[in-house]
Amino acid sequence: MTLRHEMAWLALLIGSIVSVRAANANAHTVPGHPRSARDSAARDEMYAAVRAYVAAERIPAFARKYGMKCSACHLAVPVLNAYGQAFKDNGYRMKNGTDDLRANEPGYWPVFAWLWKNYEYDVERTGGQTVQRLGRMRDGALVFGGMGSVSDKVSFRFLPSVYEDGFTFTDAGWIRYNQAFGTDWVNIKVGSNEFDLPINGGREYNMSNSRFAVLYAYAVPGTVSRFTMLFPEPGIEVMGHDRGSRNRYSVNVFTAGGAPAAHCTFCSPGVFGRVTHRQEFANGFLRSVRAGVFGAYVTWPAGPDSSDRKGQRRLGGDVEFGLGSDVLPLRVTLMAMSGRDDRALVPTAIQDPAFHAGMLQLEYVPKLPLVFYGRLQVIRNQRQAIAGRPDDFGDQDFQLVGVRRALELTSRFAWVVELTYWRQKIKSVAPGGADATLNSLWLGSHLLF
Predict the structure, then answer these.
(1) Which of 248, 215, 224 is CA-nearest to residue 357?
(2) What are phi and psi of 262, to 5 degrees?
(3) E strands of 201-328, at which residues?
(4) Each residue's pLDDT tens digit, 60-101
């Protein structure tokens, strides 16, 4: 290891030892939240340690623009820490005079790419009997997109993705007007917007998150609706926050993608909203607490006339605890959610279906760039729509454990590997009312440029 690397790791170690609160994207005191002299000095030590560390080695996209290492904003790529959340809420801006493209080197372009490939081994069981064992290389993908700020007032994101099977789609493309009316409390985004969920499906450790985030994608048994909170929806988002994003809100007005489009111009309107508050502590094992509530109401065409729309409701709350060190933390997230659909969305239904769901997630970073994580999810149908169905029909249990490590971090690319095991059980859906169970082992590699 060179002297440069040793100094970088020493700086990071100092930041871990002082164990102060997570940095926000503006290194100023929040009005109404005075800091003690001890807290201020400790925070200044951490800033100095982080600056020295990120200057030693730089990696792609924003790292190239601002001269910072990805770990400044990420607990483990792509999961954000508090500093990264504030940076995102600011429209991917540092607000230090370097956000405008004209302030950067002419050779810098706000583009990035990543490539992944994985192997998956699945074992499917029905009623306790194995019905299939299958191991295969799964379809990889290439993403080449752009994201960032082009001026102090305008930010953007565009992510075209190409899979090996030839399927191409554009995910979460949008343009945002920052600080409308001169305040951080009003930022307007137009395009395909991801919902501001407690754990974002697009910012998960596991690259196979379509199965990972089963709670967000859950649909009551028999429904014709294809709406899910897991994927971005086209519309308008208005969001706002205070300095450091301790208090924040977001409201999305959208039309659900994939709805039948006959006889209507705005076929499946919906609204999503969330508010959060984060409290930080200067001393002790408990470093931070973030609490939030969220909800969605969306309509979906029912029957032969697609202008006849019926509603779906999702309500939930979440709390996140940051424990131990701010640099090498243990993070615990709890979430609960309930849902209810109109009976007209389920053919032959006699009553409105309803369900409850819950989640526990643990994340631990023993040292950078290594992270261990696990998740438990449960979904319970409170009321079945169709007469005669078992009360537990469609109930789900989901467990996942994994480890993720960056093998290479350079000034031009990052190389990440990940090993994950998950088990998903769905009750009473197999022939004869048996349970269906899937066990999967997943090994993936991820390159970022």
Answers:
(1) 215
(2) -75, 140
(3) 233-241, 247-255, 269-280, 286-301, 309-324
(4) 667 667 777 777 777 776 678 888 888 888 888 877 777 776
Half-sphere exposure of 24 (CA within 13 A, CB side): 19
Asked if CATH classification 2.40.160.10 holds for the domain at 3-448, the reply, yes or no, is yes
Task: Scan for tokens 């994927």, then name that residue.
Answer: 231
CA distance 429 to 126: 9
- CA-wise closest residue to 64 among 29, 113, 31, 17: 113
What residue ranges do the domains of the chain occupy? 3-448
Please, which pLDDT band fits residue 256 given cuts at 50, 70 and 90? confident
Give the pLDDT band of residue 15 (cuts 50, 70, 90). Answer: very low
Can you tell me the distance from the alpha carbon of 160 to that of 363, in angstroms, rounded to the nearest whole number?
Answer: 29
Q: Which of 204, 162, 271 is nearest to 416 (CA)?
A: 204
Q: For residue 331, which amino acid is it?
A: R
Tokens for 338, please give them.
């309930």
Task: Give the phi and the psi of residue 112 in degrees, each rounded to 5.
Answer: -155, 170
Report the relative pairing of strands 74-76 and 269-280 from DSSP bridges.
unpaired
* Residue 213 one-letter amino acid: A
Pairing of strands 414-430, 434-448: antiparallel
Within a 10 A sphere around the Cβ of 31, how many other Cβ atoms? 8
> How far apart are alpha carbons 364 and 356 in whole angstroms?
28
- Retrieve residue 252's tokens: 């999305």
b vs e for 118-140, b when ≥16 Cβ sit within 10 Å of the residue's Cβ?
A: bebeebbbbeeeeeeeeeeebeb
Q: Where are the beta strands (DSSP E) in 164-285?
A: 168-177, 187-193, 233-241, 247-255, 269-280
Tell which residue, 316, 333, 425, has the closest CA to residue 373. Answer: 333
